[in-house]
Amino acid sequence: MMLSLHIARFSVTDTLIHVMPWRLRHPKSQFFCRADMQTHPPCATSWHIHAKPAWRAALKHFADRLLDAIARKKAPVCVGLDPRLDWVPEEFFVAAFEQHGRCDTAVRAAVRAFCIEVIDLVEPFCPAIKPQAAFFEALGPAGLTDFAAVCAHARAKHLLVIADVKRGDIGSTSEAYAQSLFGGAQTRGIDLPSLNVDCATVNPYLGADGVTPFVEAAAKAGGGVFVLARTSNPGSAQFQELTLTLGGTVVEQVAQRINEWGAPTVGACGYSHVGAVVGATHADAARLMRRLMPRALFLVPGYGAQGGSLEIIRSCFGADGKGAIVNSSRGVMHAYAQGPLKDYGVGRWREAVVEAARSLQSEIGGLVA
Fold first, then answer.
1. Which of 61, 157, 279, 290 is the most exposed place for a label (fewest CB within 10 A)?
2. What's domain 61-368's architecture?
3. Which stretch of DSSP H or E encloses residue 160?
4. pTM for this entry
5. Lowest mean pLDDT, pick from 4-8, 26-30, 161-165, 277-281
6. Catalytic pick from 52, 130, 166, 342?
């Protein structure tokens, strides 16, 4: 029996994840499936992928897609998903413990449900979501399935997904990482499923052979990459601003390479699918990075909880008011736990998240209008 379902098997376990529409055949007609994550009874059979999803062939250049999405939402903003366990509202744990008992499966279910509801709340205000993989990996080996479920839910809401994974390794390992994010893994005529994200963050420390597999895999999938350049953390200058004997600094050399990696793939909008992570916490660096990388999209962290200013953020955009997307994670997702909306408290956490997302849209959208 031929079935069109929104599920894909991620492992040899009995866990099914709502991911993307694939044409599937299952040799038995009875199964259990929901839009969120569910388990089903052990089954000796398997799901067979018959065709790659049609959306692959239809995708435009990543930079064009991102700028189109920004124009629709009227703000170049991204909400980061960093689900800190001590800040997840207790109501999600109560519901999960009632369903699963007090176990790690319940903790994962609580975090997943919270993230999915946050996505639903912020969707009207932002074009993209940036889930941080570390917080899901910290939930245990099965946390990757929750990361996948959250990414899939965001895509189902027509949000672009920027996987904050900061991957980077030797060439063959980077190729495997890239396949896990963008697809392309195949063996014996079998196409293996991937996270199917739109974009991912990449660490350039190992050089071109560690970055190129991501650049190539993303381009083939209609996706993009954001390469770490001048980051927002306090210790970033320790290496990034080191002066080189050949002149300039480490980050300036990284900027030059980002230009080279992205030069062959510039979209109709004038920007490449190879972008840069440039923090909102270093004014002079932000201006320099924009000057050195005129065709690179910037992912701009550091606004909100890390103290990034609107003046610095404006420096990350081009003269046309385009070319960057500003992220806020804790400032939106956990707005009720810290920051200016803390007085809302956990009882009004939904109102706080909506208000923080609306303010982010208004402040950044007005800055570059």
1. 157
2. Alpha-Beta Barrel (3.20)
3. strand 160-167
4. 0.84
5. 26-30
6. 166
Express each pLDDT in 114-155 by its tens digit.
999 999 999 999 999 999 999 999 999 999 999 999 999 999
For the chain, give every domain's residue range: 2-49, 61-368
Q: Which helix (H) or strand (E) holds 174?
A: helix 171-182
What pLDDT digit, counting tens, does each position of 26-68 carry?
A: 333 332 333 333 333 333 333 232 334 444 446 789 999 999 9
Note if 28 is an active site residue. Answer: no
Both tokens assigned to 287: 């201006």
Yes or no: say if 37 and 7 are a contact pair by the CB < 8 Å rule. Answer: no
Question: How many angstroms separate the CA atoms of 365 and 369, rounded?
Answer: 6
369 burial type by CB count under 10 A (0-12 exposed, 13-18 middle, 19+ buried): exposed
Amino acid at 330: R
Amino acid identity of residue 318, one-letter, is G
Tracing tokens 């990449």 back to the chain, one arrives at 202
CB of 321 within 8 A of CB of 33?
no
What gap in Å lies between CA 221 and CA 184, rounded to an integer? 9
Whole-number Å distance between alpha carbons of 145 and 17? 7
CB-count burial class (<10 Å; 0-12, 13-18, 19+) for 121: buried
Say how far residue 169 (Cα) sits from the centre of its chain.
19
Strands 274-278 and 160-167: unpaired
